[in-house]
Amino acid sequence: MSDPACAFQKHDHGTCSRDALLRAEEICREAGARLTPVRRRALEILLEEHRALGAYDVLERLAADGFGSQPPVAYRALEFLVDQGLAHRIRRLNAFAACTTLECDHAPAFFICKSCKAVAETPADTLRAQIDKAGAALGFVVERANVEALGLCPSCQTEAPA
Q1: Which residue, 38, 30, 13, 39, is CA-closest to 100?
Q2: What does the alpha-carbon distance between residue 60 and residue 73 come to, in Å, rounded to a whole number?
């Protein structure tokens, strides 16, 4: 997905998901990582909508598909996806979302709709550079930064009472 705004707009989501899954398979193959059936299904679940899902939501779906009902099943699969750059942890929601910019290493920012929980991911390299610079001015080396903006997506703005 090249346009982050498509998370908030109608689009051919089947193509969007299929392309992301094909790229994820390539990334795993190139890294020598195994996209096992349970990991693949966890990614498919995350790709079904541009929303963040909690680990227990993913676990429920995995269990329904016959992959087991113990929490480690979901947590291990999600941890693998995050480690491979195929998913992100959305800390504000204590949830996970499929990475939508698999083309390169990146410093993403997340725009989270507080009403419908839709999540748009967009590159935020300039913002990350500013964070790194501010940290350096303090003698601090930033290893990880998670930028999350909370608000209302276009659809929820339209539905919200005036």
Answers
A1: 13
A2: 10
Cβ neighbours of 151 (radius 10 Å): 11
- Report residue 26 as tokens: 């390539």
Q: What is the dihedral of CA 96, 56, 9, 43, to 10 degrees?
A: 60
User: Distance (Å, rounded) from C-alpha 87 to C-alpha 113?
Assistant: 18
CA angle 95, 117, 52 (to 5 degrees): 30
119, 52 Cβ separation under 8 angstroms: yes
Q: pLDDT digits over 126-151, tens only?
A: 998 999 999 999 999 998 888 999 99
Distance of alpha carbon 123 from alpha carbon 109, whole angstroms: 6
| Residue 151 near residue 131, CB atoms below 8 Å | no
Tell me how far apart the alpha carbons of residues 5 and 136 are, in angstroms, rounded to a whole number.
Answer: 32
Using one digit for the tens of pLDDT, what is the confidence trace for 36-74? 999 999 999 999 877 889 999 999 999 999 998 899 999
